[in-house]
Amino acid sequence: MRRDVFQAIADPTRREIIDLLANNPLNLNAIADNFSISRPAISKQIKILTQCGLVTISRQGREHYCTANLQKFGEVSAWIEKYKVFWNLKLDALGDFLEKEAEINKNFTNKT
Predict the structure, then answer these.
(1) Which strands make up the sheet holding 63-68, listed edge to edge?
(2) Is the pLDDT at 34 greater than 70, yes or no?
(3) Could you give the CA distance from residue 9 to residue 30 in angstroms, rounded to a whole number?
(4) One GO MF term, please (predicted)?
(5) In a shared domain, residues 63 and 18
């Protein structure tokens, strides 16, 4: 199954893992210590993050260290930006409409 960054951030546990790794690499046990779920469950979440390209795993001796690849969030940022422009235009138009309606109501109230 091909996974993407949107699937990764859809899950709150995976978002927390990314938050933990954003500043420095951690080994699997250090990550698991931050959660009340089992280490195998954390490993499954990390596997998904790895498949999405958000986490890379390197080996140092017997330890496996996870590092966040935050550049992948560029895909999310680009997608959000597209809708940000769309919604800003819509909200600006709504604001203009409401201002005109308020002015019309104000003028109508003053005449009566």
Answers:
(1) 26-27, 63-68, 55-60
(2) yes
(3) 21
(4) DNA binding
(5) yes
Query: Alpha-carbon distance 71 to 50, whole Å?
Result: 13
Global pTM?
0.74
Q: Is 96 helix (H, G, I), strand (E, B) or coil?
A: helix
What contacts 53, CB < 8 A, 6 or more positions away?
Answer: 5, 69, 72
What are the tokens at 93?
Answer: 């138009």
Of 46, 41, 40, 38, the C-alpha closest to 20 is 46
- Residue 24 sits in the same domain as residue 46: yes
Which pLDDT score, from 0 to 100, does residue 105 have? 85
The answer to whether 105 and 92 have CB atoms below 8 angstroms apart is no
